[in-house]
Each structure stands twice: as structure tokens, then as C-alpha cells.
Design goal:
The chain is α+β, with helices and mostly antiparallel strands. It contains 4 helices and 5 strands, in the order αββαββααβ. It has helices at 2-12, 50-61, 82-86, 94-100; strands at residues 34-39, 42-46, 68-73, 76-80, 104-108. It has a 5-stranded antiparallel beta sheet with strand order 1-2-4-3-5, sandwiched between helices. The chain is globular.
């Protein structure tokens, strides 16, 4: 997790102590093994394997709270809940993060 946080921090400039708690999609095996806030509404989730990540992606896609931009690769995900939490568009560059980390960017639940 430390390497993942460091890589995300290099691109997004994570806060040292962001306020709030990560949101956990719940459905048995899709619960993250570790979660860290990068910014007040941007979280980093680590999963035990690709199958757990896929289940979490399905849960995020089925949310009724509006569009959720995210980046995922392997067994990790960075989720931007700024729009859901504030109703305002996010200025977080997840597309650039995806490009830099050779990962997938998508907006789910839109």
C-alpha cells in the first residue's frame, strides 16, 4: 500500500492528513484490504485480488449517488467522490493519473 500511496501522491499531491474517512463499498468479498484518503474526497483502495476489485467496480457502478470518476489497475482503485460529496465538479486529474500509472480511467454510475 505504501508504494501505491507514494505513486498516487506524486501525481495528485495527497494531503498529509486529509479530513474524513474512506467510503467502503460493501458486498462480502469486495471489501478493500486497506484504504487511505489522499484528499478529503479522494481515496485509495487496495483489494486482495482482481476478483475483489471487479466486485467493487460493480458496486460503484450500481451506486445511485451520481457519477463517480475512478482509476483502477491490478488490485487497486483511486476513487474521487468530490462530486457526490459536494455537488461540485472535481479538479482532481484522475485521467492524468491513469495515464501515468498505466491504469484505466472511467466514470461509473453516470
Amino acid at each position: 500500500m505504501d508504494q501505491l500511496v507514494s505513486a498516487v501522491d506524486e501525481h495528485l499531491g495527497c494531503d498529509t492528513d486529509p479530513a474524513g474517512d474512506p467510503v467502503t463499498p460493501m458486498d462480502g468479498d469486495s471489501v478493500p484490504t486497506d484504504q487511505v484518503l489522499c484528499l478529503p474526497h479522494v481515496q485509495i483502495d487496495l483489494y486482495k485480488d482482481q476478483a475483489a476489485l471487479d466486485k467493487a467496480l460493480t458496486l460503484w457502478s450500481d451506486t445511485q449517488q451520481g457519477p463517480v470518476p475512478l482509476v483502477h489497475g491490478g488490485n487497486w482503485m483511486v476513487v474521487d467522490l468530490t462530486g457526490v460529496a459536494t455537488g461540485e465538479p472535481s479538479a482532481v486529474d484522475l485521467e492524468g493519473l491513469a495515464s501515468e500509472m498505466d491504469a484505466e480511467y472511467e466514470i461509473v454510475a453516470s
